[in-house]
Amino acid sequence: MPQFFPEVKMVKFEGPKSRDPLAFKHYDAGEKVLGKTMADHLRFSVCYWHTFKGLGSDPFGPGTIIRKYNNSSDPMTVAEMTLWAAFEFFAKLGVDYWCFHDRDIAPEGGTLAESNKNLDRIVKLARKLQRDTGIKPLWGTANLFSNRRYMGGAATNPSPAVFAYAAAQVKKAMEVTQELGGAGYVFWGGREGYDTLLNTDMGRELDHLGAFLHMAVDYKKKIGFRGQFYIEPKPKEPTKHQYDSDAGACFAFLQKYDLVDHFKLNIEANHGTLAGHTFQHELEFCVANGILGSVDANRGDLLVGWDTDQFPTDLYDCTLGLYTLLQGGGFRTGGLNFDAKVRRQSIDPVDLFHAHIGGMDTFARALKIAARMIKDGKFARFVSQRYAAWDTAFGRKIAAGKATFAEMEKYTLTQGEPRIQSGRQEMLENMLNAYIS
Amino acid sequence: MPQFFPEVKMVKFEGPKSRDPLAFKHYDAGEKVLGKTMADHLRFSVCYWHTFKGLGSDPFGPGTIIRKYNNSSDPMTVAEMTLWAAFEFFAKLGVDYWCFHDRDIAPEGGTLAESNKNLDRIVKLARKLQRDTGIKPLWGTANLFSNRRYMGGAATNPSPAVFAYAAAQVKKAMEVTQELGGAGYVFWGGREGYDTLLNTDMGRELDHLGAFLHMAVDYKKKIGFRGQFYIEPKPKEPTKHQYDSDAGACFAFLQKYDLVDHFKLNIEANHGTLAGHTFQHELEFCVANGILGSVDANRGDLLVGWDTDQFPTDLYDCTLGLYTLLQGGGFRTGGLNFDAKVRRQSIDPVDLFHAHIGGMDTFARALKIAARMIKDGKFARFVSQRYAAWDTAFGRKIAAGKATFAEMEKYTLTQGEPRIQSGRQEMLENMLNAYIS
Amino acid sequence: MPQFFPEVKMVKFEGPKSRDPLAFKHYDAGEKVLGKTMADHLRFSVCYWHTFKGLGSDPFGPGTIIRKYNNSSDPMTVAEMTLWAAFEFFAKLGVDYWCFHDRDIAPEGGTLAESNKNLDRIVKLARKLQRDTGIKPLWGTANLFSNRRYMGGAATNPSPAVFAYAAAQVKKAMEVTQELGGAGYVFWGGREGYDTLLNTDMGRELDHLGAFLHMAVDYKKKIGFRGQFYIEPKPKEPTKHQYDSDAGACFAFLQKYDLVDHFKLNIEANHGTLAGHTFQHELEFCVANGILGSVDANRGDLLVGWDTDQFPTDLYDCTLGLYTLLQGGGFRTGGLNFDAKVRRQSIDPVDLFHAHIGGMDTFARALKIAARMIKDGKFARFVSQRYAAWDTAFGRKIAAGKATFAEMEKYTLTQGEPRIQSGRQEMLENMLNAYIS
Amino acid sequence: MPQFFPEVKMVKFEGPKSRDPLAFKHYDAGEKVLGKTMADHLRFSVCYWHTFKGLGSDPFGPGTIIRKYNNSSDPMTVAEMTLWAAFEFFAKLGVDYWCFHDRDIAPEGGTLAESNKNLDRIVKLARKLQRDTGIKPLWGTANLFSNRRYMGGAATNPSPAVFAYAAAQVKKAMEVTQELGGAGYVFWGGREGYDTLLNTDMGRELDHLGAFLHMAVDYKKKIGFRGQFYIEPKPKEPTKHQYDSDAGACFAFLQKYDLVDHFKLNIEANHGTLAGHTFQHELEFCVANGILGSVDANRGDLLVGWDTDQFPTDLYDCTLGLYTLLQGGGFRTGGLNFDAKVRRQSIDPVDLFHAHIGGMDTFARALKIAARMIKDGKFARFVSQRYAAWDTAFGRKIAAGKATFAEMEKYTLTQGEPRIQSGRQEMLENMLNAYIS
C-alpha cells in the first residue's frame, strides 16, 4: 500500500525539552501515573469523520483540503484508500482506539441493502487492519443526521418510515461495531429536536425516542453485544433545540423512560460549553449521578456560538476535567476520543499530526498535574474540611433524611446565627496555578 | 390610611380604542374566553419584592426610587405602610393574587425568634387586608439568598447549621402561607449551586437538597398545608451555576430523589432564556412531562446576559406561551406572577401602573390570540397531519414498544427510501403573524 | 422556457382578510404611505445565493432541496436555467430588485479568464431578462470567501497574489454590476479577519484592506460607475473575528483610511445581533453618523450563536428598524434585500414563496405602523420634551462647545441637585404595543 | 494608626518552590526582563473601589464582608480609616500605584460644595500617605454612574443640569488627580448609553459626549495637568447599550469628534469579552491604531453574561495580552490596574491578599513567558514569513497604494491560481503550550 503520510515517521516520546514539533513532549504511553499507564488512563481515540473525511468546508465555502486518498472517482476505492490512510495514521500516532460512523467508513449506496454491502466490504478490510495493528473501536455509531431523509429527525421523525430506516441503520452499525470488537456504541441525536414548536409534537417525539432506545437495548441483548451504550448531549446545532441538550436533560430522559441501567453519557467539551456549562461541570454532574461513560475531547471557542471542535490545548480545562474523572474512578469502557478538526486553513497532512500530538500532549500533561493534585490531597482536604460539620452526628442525621423542620427550628432558635467561613476561591485558584506547569 | 397612589384610580377596561394609558385595552377580567373568564385563565399575581421593595439599585448604583411608604426610620412601620400601599395597588389594578418572600413583608430581626415575631405581626395585618379585598397569595416563599449566612447556599451549604436555619425559615414561611390561604409554595434555590468546583462537593450538596425537600414534604403533610409545591429553574446568577438550571435539570433531580409526586415547576421566562431556551420551550417540556405548575411572567433581553426581569410585552412570546399552556390544560393551582421590575429610570409610582397594565394587557391580548388559534385548529391540524403515519398500525406498533430492529430493517429493505415532506416553517410563521393583531 | 414555479401564479395583494397563503395581505406595491408608494419605500430585493443557489446544506449534512433547474450536468446550462427560474420568481413576486455575487450567477471556471467568460455569457441573458421584466440589481458583489484561495482572507490575505486575484474579481464584478444597471456594490469581507492572532499581523492586514478599497474607489471613478459602495459589518463566522465587526468598527475603519466619502453601510439584522446589537441600534448608529446605506433584511435566533438568516417576521424589529430608517430619510440608493434562506426542511419551491411573502408582508405592515407612529408624533414629542432643556440658552451653549468646566461648576454650586425625570420606558413600550396591529 | 491587616506581613518574593501562599512565587519587582524591571513593565495598581469599598453585594443580596475600617457611624472617619487601611495594603503588597473614583475615597455630601470639601480633607491625608510610601495614582476618575442623578447618563443625560454636575465633578476629580501626582485620568461612561431607543436621541447624546470631552481637554490644558486621558470601552451593564461599546466604537467616536490626539484607551479584559472580543484582540486593535493606553486587569467568566471582575489567573490570556503589549512598546503612562474583586464568599481580609498575589504572580509569570517568546522570535518569524511576499516589489507597490485593479487583473490572468499555505494554527498553539510553564 502507498504511504499517505510519508513525511511523518512514528511519533515518539522525547520529553519536554525536545524541539521536534512531531514528537511527544509529555505523552509517554507506558509511563505509570497513579498506578496505571498513561495509555490505560487516557485511552486515546482518533475520530474518523473529522480527521479523514473532513476537508475544511464551512457554511461559507467548500473544502480547502486535498488528500491523496480521495484521488479516485470510485467511492469504494476512496473508502479503502482512506481506511489504509487512517490505520497508517493511527499506528504512527500510537493510539489504541478509533471511532466511526457507518457512513464515514463506507459510502451510502442507492438502497439500504447496497449501503450494508458497502459496509461489509470495508469492515472486512478494517478487521484485517485492526489485526495488523491491534487497534480497535472505542465506539461505533450510525450517522442519522446527514442524509436528507433525516432532516426532521431520525427516531423523532414525523414519519415512522424514517424511524424504521434509522433503526435499520443502527442495527447494522451495532453489528459492525460488535464485529470489530468495539468497546461501546454512541447515540448522538443530531437532529432529534426541533426548529420550531409550531410544527412539532414534543411529547410524541420524546416517546418515540424512548421506544427507539428500548429497541436498541433489546437488540443488543439479542446479539449479545457487550459494548457500553452512550448518549451524547448537545443543546443545539444543527437543530435549534436538541432534546438531549445537556447532561441534566439526558439524565431526566433516561430516568423517565427507564433507561438508566442501559446508558451512560458521552460528554463532549464543546457541547457542554454550548449549553452554558464547563467541561468539568458536565463530568462532575455525571460522576455525581453515576452516568459518566466516555469523553469527546475537544475545545470550543466561548466567544463564538457554534461547535468549533478545536483540538484540546487548554491545560486548565483538561486538568480539571481529568481531576473530576480520576476522582470518579476513571474510564471503564470509555476513553478520550478526539472529536476535533483542524482549522480550515490547516490544509497539510502534517497539520493532522500537529493537532493530535498537541491534544495528546495536553491531556498527558494534564494527567500528570491532576495526579499530583490528587496525591498531594490539598484540594480534597480543603473540601472535606469545608463540609466537616456534616460529619458530626447533627449533620449525619440530616443527611440521612431523619431530621425534621421542627428540630431544625429548635436548633436554630437555640444556636443562633451560624458561623460562616470564607470560600477561599482566590487561594484555591492560586493553588491550581501552582500545579499548572 | 393614607393613599399611596392617589394619582391613579381603579384601573378599568376601556377597550382597544381607549387613549387612557392607565386603562386596560384588552384585559376585561370577566370576559369569557374558551369557556372561562380571563381572570380565571390568567390568575394574575403581583410580586411584592420588585414592586414594593425594589428601588432601582443595580450593581453600579444604589436605588433611584423614593416611595412615601419608606418614609420612616422604624422598619416595622415601613413594613406596615408598605403592606397598605401594596393592597391599595392590588385593588386598584384588580388582581386576585400576590406573591411574597418572608423577608419582603417583614424585616429580618436580630434573631430568628424576632424575625418570626415581626412576620406574625405583619401577617395579622395582611389577613385583615386580604379579608377587605378578597386577594390571596398565589404562593409564598422564603428568602434563602440575601442574608450573608446563605452566601454558600441554604440547603446546599457546607454548614448544616445554615441548612437548619433555612429549614426553620421555610417552616415558618410555609405556616404563614397556609395562614394566608396561599395556593402554593415556591422553592427557588438562588444560591443552591456553586461559584467554583474547586471548593464544592456537588454530589453531597445535591443529596442535602434532596433531604431538605423531603423534610418540606413531611412538614407539609404534618400541618395539612394543601398548596402546591413548586421548584423554579434558573441556570445562574447569583451563582455561576445553579443546580436547578433548567426544566430538564429540575426534572432529573425530582426523579432521582423521588420527589416528582410532590413538586411541579414554576417557569420564569427570563430564566428560560438565560438557560438558552425559549419561554415556550420550557413550558412545552413541562407539559410533555406533566410537571407544569405556575409561571413567573416577565421578559429578558437576549442581548444582555443577566436577568433583566422586564415586564412582558412581547406578543409573540406571550401568545406562544399561552398556546402551550392552554393545550396543556391551563393553570390549576398556578398563575401568572409578574416577577418583573420597572427600569431604574422609571422612578414614579405611576410607572408601576404602566408596567403592570402593559403586562396584563399583553397577556390578555395573547390569550385571545391563542384562543383563536386553538378554536380555528389550523396549527393543531397541521401538526397532526404531519405525524399522521404514526396513527397507522405500523406507527402504533412502534410507539407501543412492540416493534424490533429486525422488523424495521425488513420494512426498510422492502419499502425503500421514505418520502419526506416540507416542515413548512415559513408558512406557519406567516400564519402566526396573521393571528397577531 | 419551462416554468419552474408552475404551482404559483402572480402574487397579488388581497388584503388582511384573504385566506390565500400565497397572496399579500399587507404589501400593496402602489399604496401610498407618507407620500411615497410602498414599493418606493421598501425597495425589496431577492438575493440570488440563498434563494436559488442554497439547497439546505448545513455543517451536519448536505442539501435537502432538489430543484428542477439544477437538473443538468452542464454547469452553464444549470446557470442559465437558474437565471430563468430566478426571473420567473422575481416577476411572480413583484419585486423590482435582485442582488447577486459573481459566482452565484455563473460558475467559476478553471481560470479567471474562463470565469469571466462564463460571467459574460450569463450577464447577456440577465440583460435580456432584465429588459423583459424591468427588474434591476439593487447591488452586485464578488464572492471572495468560498474558494479555497480565500481561506486566509482576500484583501487581507498573507499573499499579495490572492489580493490580486480578489481585486481582479471585484473589477469584473463591478463592471458587470454597472452593465446591469445596479444601484450599488457591496463589500462583505467574509474572511477579512483571523482565526488566531498567533499567525496574524492585524495592522498590516488592515492597511492592505484600506489599500484595496481605495483601488476600488479609483476604479469606480475610472469606469464611471455611479452606484453606491457599501461595506457590510459582521463580527464573526466564518472567521473567529472579522475586522468589519459592527457598524462602529466599520466607521472607525472608514475614518482612519479616509474612505467615509465613498462608502455607506449595508446593515444586516442578523449580523447586528451576532455582534450584540439590535437591528435598530445598528441603523440608528448609521443614521447618527450619516453612513446608512442599505439593509440585508433577515432575522437571527438570539438563542443560537450563528447566522441563521431566517426570513424577517418579527413585527417589533421590523417596525423599529423602519421607524429609525424613515426618520433618517429612508433609502436613497439602498433597499431591503432578503438575505434570508428557507429552513432546511422547507424543501418545496412553494416554501420560497411563503418565505418571501411573509417577509414582504411583515415589512409592509411594519411600514404602515411606523408611518402611523411618525404621523401621530407621540414618540417624537416624548423624546423632544425629554431633552427640552437642551433647547434653552444654557443647553445650547454647552452643545455648541462654548461652555467650560468652570462655568459648569459654578452653575452646579448655585443650582444644586438637578431634577430628574422618569424615563417612562414601560409606558413607551405599551404605546408601541398599541401600534402593533 | 491601627493595623488593619495584622495577619499579613510584607509580601515577599520567595520563588516558585515556596509553599507560603502569601509569598510571591513569580513576581520579583526588581528582576530584569527584556532590559527593564518587572515593576517597570507591569506597573501594578490596586483599585480602591472593589478592594476597599466593595463588600460583596450582588443583585440578590447585600454585602457579606465586614471590615474593621467601616466600624464607625461617621462617614469621614470611615473614609480616613479606609485610606489608612488601603495604604497599609498597598505597602504590604509592594505596588507602586493605586486608582480611585472621587466618591470611593470621600463620601458624597449633601451638596457639591460639601462633597468637594470632603474630598479635600481626604486628599490631604492621601498626600501624606503617598509621601510616606512613595505610592501614586496610576489614574483617578469621577464616579458618574452611582448617584441617582446619573441614572439617565452623565454627559449624555437628557438634562444639561446633570451634564453640568458631571462636568463639575470631573473638574474637581481632575484637580485632585493632579494634586496627587496621578499619571492619568480615566473616563468610563458607565451610564452613557441607553436602555431603550424609544426615549433616546442617540445623535444628540453623542454630540454632547463629544462636547464634554472637549471641555475636559480644555480644562486639562488650563490647569496644566500632564496625565494621559483614557476612555474605557464596555458594551453594556449597567446600560443595555453603552456608546463606548468596544475599542472599535471608541476609535470611531474619537475620530469623529477629533479627539484622537487627546485620548488613549483603557482596556479591561472583562469588558472586551462582554463585547465578544478576546483581551488580546482589544489590545491588538489598540496597538494597530496607536491608541493603547492602560489596562484594567481582570478576568470574566465567558459562560455568564455579566462583568464578574474576577482576578486574572489565566496564564494564556495574560501571556497573550502581554505579548501584544510588549510588541506594541509596553506601557508609557498606563499600567495594570486590578479592577477585580474577591468573590462574595471570600470574606476575610486575607482573601484580598490571596487575590492580588495571584494576579501579580500570574502576570509576572506571563511576562517571563512572553519575554521568552519574543527573545526566541519563533512566532514573529513565522508571521513575517507568512507575509513575506508582501516584502517583494509587487507586494510593496500594492501596500503603498500605487497599484490598480487593472494591474491586478493582468497579474492574475498571467500568474494563474495563487499558491496557498497552511495557517498552521495547531502547530502554533502547541508552540504556545510549550512556553506555558
Describe this structure in words.
The structure is a homotetramer of 437-residue chains. Chain A is of the alpha/beta class and 437 residues long. Chain A has 2 domains: 32-376, Divalent-metal-dependent TIM barrel enzymes (TIM Barrel); 394-435, no CATH class. Chain A is built from 16 helices and 12 strands. In chain A, helix 3 (75-93) runs parallel beside helix 5, helix 6 packs parallel to helix 7 and helix 11 crosses helix 12 (349-376). The interface between A and B is large, with 101 and 99 residues.
What's this model, at a glance?
The structure is a homotetramer of 437-residue chains. Chain A has 437 residues and is α/β, with parallel strands linked by helices.
Task: Describe the secondary-structure layout.
Four copies of one chain form a homotetramer.
Chain A (H helix, E strand, L loop, with lengths): L31 E2 L2 E2 H5 L1 E4 H6 L21 H19 L3 E5 H4 L6 H22 L2 E6 L18 H20 L4 E4 L5 E2 L7 H22 L4 E4 L9 E2 L4 H10 L6 E6 H6 L4 H11 L2 E5 L18 H13 L8 E3 L10 H28 L1 H9 L6 H7 L5 H11 L9 H11 L2
Parallel strand pairs in A: 3-4, 3-12, 4-5, 6-8, 8-10, 10-11, 11-12
Antiparallel strand pairs in A: 1-2, 7-9
Helix pairs in contact in A: 3-5, 5-6, 6-7, 10-11, 11-12
